[in-house]
Design a protein that fits this description.
Chain A: Keywords: Membrane, Transmembrane, Transmembrane helix. Chain A: It comes from Mycetocola manganoxydans. Chain A: This is YdbS-like PH domain-containing protein. Chain A: InterPro entries: UCP026631 (IPR014529), YdbS-like_PH (IPR005182). The structure holds two protein chains of two kinds. Chain A is an alpha+beta fold. Among the domains of chain A are: about 55 residues; about 190 residues, no CATH class. Helix content of chain A is about 35%, strand content about 20%. Chain B has five helices and seven strands; from the N terminus they run αβααββββαββα. In chain B, strand 6 and strand 7 form a beta hairpin. Classes of the chains: A alpha+beta, B alpha+beta.
Chain lengths: ~575, ~200
């Protein structure tokens, strides 16, 4: 298995770099017309010096077709072999089983009619075709990173070509699902604005992924790689094929990769700014709505058992198993949580068995919500979620795509995470500020809903309000679920206020900020009409002003190098 | 950064002269509201300053024709069902639906006069609704697409509908009942200002 991943580069690697491709591709028996541009032959230098951001087309991990679709083929093969097991045993140990008439099957037919040669040939041809298909699809699946975009093209008969403009990048995530991890492969996803518009590089060499992401984000930031001294040495000449195929080295490498921390020490500060103790993680998961549900189910079950209805076990046990697996996946996902600031953005890592980590460049957070359920209040635990662009609709609503940036943490942890997400300098004040905003919003510069709102929102009206400061709109709301929404005006799409007939009777209104789709729906449930009108005016002016001052699409570019191009006009 | 473009001014011949319309600025209820607002500490109805542009009054007729078509469909279905089943319930359902349509139609003129938009220097304001009022502000730079739709009835009256698409589905702005030429001019103008104020989402 592992041999395959580290097999020498395909024979084409030997060719001189400038040689035109088509002539080198006379693979007999391929049904596909080899079009010249699909086979740009480039020399691939020894892998430790691979420069993937040189604007040339590069190929992915050779195990890619296998990991993407070949698993099914392997499974079928395994199934066939398993079914032939008895037959094989009989073949090598004659007399071990008794050949009876009921064992008559196609294989016996083939044997008796002397078609063995033909059958073997057929199997061989099928295998050859499948291998050829894998090989061609791997050959034709290439990507390149230029100064402008990340591009991927793939497909044998139906070519697809995807391209992510660098200044539209919303984040780069690297995930290593369990099986690809064994192969030393990783999946990189470059998300751009627009639902489901991300460019996926699956699968890359695991060791290339982190560097590639760093380079992509550095390019996207508007800094030239050479200026930063990050550009690797120019591609060396041919002859770089390594031959040290020592199995032990491969195994060691794979094991160390597998156990390596999610944060690459070279590209991130070594220390994650927040750690989640295992006890807190388990405690917070147990103190969730799920366990309340389990308790309720248990009560119902005990009552029904006492009443002699044993059949209730039939639904109780499966639902407990389901919830248990949910708990297990929640806990293992967050077990190796880490968050750290890097030059290219905030990097958040998750996962024990299948790991993933996302880097969010500065200014890609569209909304932050700090929330606390009533069950967590005695412990002072909070959760932080974000809205980010580039998720498909169902992922965004289902809370997938790593939108929970802090599964559980104290307010101090929350303040560190918020600092990173908003790009604020680290300070101790933010924690107190958050504390004040949550506990006593009236003293923290919040405009609160008036007393007449008590008929409308009897529990939370005292703590429902908004505040506009430093280009941020804050919504404070909720009692059972205490929530603080932090909305950067520079990212807000639009803003609305609305009023129904009952609200009008009480001279109240509600407000809603519109951001990209995500787990957070930033609303202000109730506010006085005069305040709502003022908020509407201030926010609509604030969005415009904040957007004009915003330069985060090329976040590190301080001086435009060649005059303000139209798209950099903002 | 300054924007040389002036706020959009429609061709005077195309513009809807607000004064020509029936008493739209202050409905009876709104006048009462305004009177009360002076005594109370807060207005009842949320509103913002500035002149709201209104949609064409012809759109009221378009909407009423739509209601009439719906009513005809209801009657036809009820007649068919009544003939087939020879029972009373289709007629009751028909009565209920017709009542609802008639009620809706009675409020149509006010509902459509409540639709308004403002083109400010940097953003578009939109509002609609009398019972359930909604006001939205969208900066021009946030608009991604602007669609023009024309239904068959609206086309007969020379009207069109502008639909604004942003990165957020919740923005949901549809501006109906614009004269076709005005709609196209408005679209071109908005695309232009959106382009010059484009920001990276």
């Amino acid at each position: 298995m592992t041999d395959e991943t580290d097999a020498p580069r395909p024979p084409f690697g030997n060719l001189p770099p400038q040689q035109p491709a088509p002539g080198s591709e006379p693979q007999p028996g391929y049904p596909v017309a080899a079009q010249p541009e699909y086979f740009p032959v480039q020399h691939q230098p020894p892998r430790d010096q691979r420069n993937l951001t040189d604007g040339e087309w590069h190929r992915l991990h050779p195990a890619t077709p296998l990991l993407r679709g070949g698993i099914a083929f392997l499974a079928i093969t395994g199934f066939v072999i398993a079914n032939l097991r008895e037959r094989l045993v009989e073949l090598f140990l004659p007399g071990a089983g008794d050949t009876a008439e009921e064992n008559y099957d196609p294989l016996t037919y083939v044997w008796e009619h002397g078609y063995v040669g033909l059958a073997l040939l057929a199997v061989f041809v099928v295998l050859l075709v499948v291998m050829a298909g894998f090989f061609v699809s791997w050959r034709m699946h290439t990507f390149r990173v230029t100064d402008e975009a990340v591009e991927v093209r793939s497909g044998i008969l139906f070519r697809t070509h995807r391209n992510a403009k660098l200044d539209r990048i919303q984040g780069v995530g690297i995930s290593r699902p369990f099986l690809p991890r064994l192969f030393g492969a990783a999946k990189m996803e470059v998300s751009v604005a627009g639902a489901d518009a991300s460019v996926k590089l699956e699968y890359l060499y695991s060791r290339d992924a982190d560097n590639l992401r760093r380079d992509v984000l550095t390019l996207a930031s508007g800094v030239r790689l050479a200026e930063k001294g990050l550009a690797p040495a120019p591609t060396v000449g041919p002859g770089g094929i390594e031959n040290e195929q020592v199995l032990s080295r491969i195994v060691n490498e794979r094991v160390s990769e597998f156990l390596a921390p999610e944060l690459d020490p070279g590209t991130a500060p070594p220390e994650s700014v927040v750690r989640i103790p295992v006890g807190r993680l388990i405690g917070s998961t147990v103190l969730s709505i799920g366990s309340v549900l389990i308790l309720a189910l248990a009560v119902v079950m005990i009552v029904s058992i006492v009443n002699g209805q044993i059949w209730s076990l039939f639904w109780f046990i499966p639902s407990v198993i389901g919830l248990g697996s949910y708990f297990w996946s929640t806990i293992t996902k967050s077990l190796r949580y880490s968050i750290a600031g890097t030059p290219s953005g905030v990097r958040i890592g998750f996962g024990l068995f299948s790991t993933s980590n996302d880097t969010l460049p500065p200014g890609r957070v569209h909304a932050i919500e700090i929330s606390q359920s009533v069950l967590w209040r005695p412990f002072g635990w909070w959760q932080v979620k974000i809205n980010k662009a580039g998720l498909s609709a169902e992922d965004a609503i289902g809370g997938k795509g790593n939108t929970t940036v802090l599964p559980v943490g104290t307010l101090t942890d929350v303040s560190r995470v918020v600092e990173l997400l908003l790009g604020l300098p680290a300070s101790e004040d933010l924690r107190d500020e958050l504390q004040l905003a949550i506990n006593e919003p009236s003293r923290s510069g919040f405009t609160l809903s008036p007393r007449r709102a008590r008929w409308f929102d009897p529990f939370a009206w005292k703590r429902t309000g908004y505040s506009l400061r430093d280009g941020l709109l804050l919504f404070r709301k909720g009692v059972v679920w205490r929530k603080l929404d932090i909305l950067p005006l520079a990212r807000m799409v639009s803003f609305s206020v609305s009023q129904g007939p009952v609200e009008r009777m009480f001279r109240l209104a509600s407000a809603r900020a519109h951001t990209v789709l995500g787990p957070i729906t930033p609303t202000l449930p109730v506010i006085g009409t005069a305040e709502a009108a003022r908020l509407y005016e201030e926010v609509s002016a604030g969005i415009v002003a904040a957007s004009l001052a915003d330069h985060s699409h090329r976040w590190a570019q301080t001086v435009p190098d060649a005059g303000p191009a139209p798209e950099n006009f903002s | 950064m300054t924007h040389p473009e002036q706020p959009w001014t429609p061709d005077p011949t195309l513009a809807e002269p607000v004064t020509e319309q029936a008493p739209v600025r202050l409905q009876a209820g709104e006048a009462a509201d305004a009177a009360e607002a002076t005594t109370a500490d807060a207005p009842r109805r949320i509103d913002t300053t500035g002149e709201w542009r209104r949609v064409s009054p012809k759109y009221i007729l378009v909407d009423l024709i739509g209601s009439a078509i719906a009513a005809v469909v209801v009657v036809v279905v009820a007649v068919v069902l009544g003939v087939i089943f020879e029972q009373a319930w289709p007629w009751w359902i028909m009565g209920g639906l017709l009542l609802a349509i008639a009620l809706g139609a009675a409020f149509t003129p006010r509902r459509i006069r409540s639709i308004g938009y403002q083109l400010r220097q940097d953003d578009l304001l939109f509002r609609r609704g009398i019972m359930w009022t909604r006001m939205v502000a969208v900066p021009y730079g946030r608009m991604q697409l602007i669609d023009i739709n024309r239904g068959p009835v609206a086309r007969a009256f020379g009207l069109a509908e502008l639909k604004f698409v942003t990165a957020s589905a919740a923005t949901a702005i549809v501006l109906p009942g614009l004269p076709a030429e005005e709609a196209e001019d408005l679209r071109d103008h908005l695309v232009e200002v959106a382009e010059s104020r484009r920001t990276g989402l």
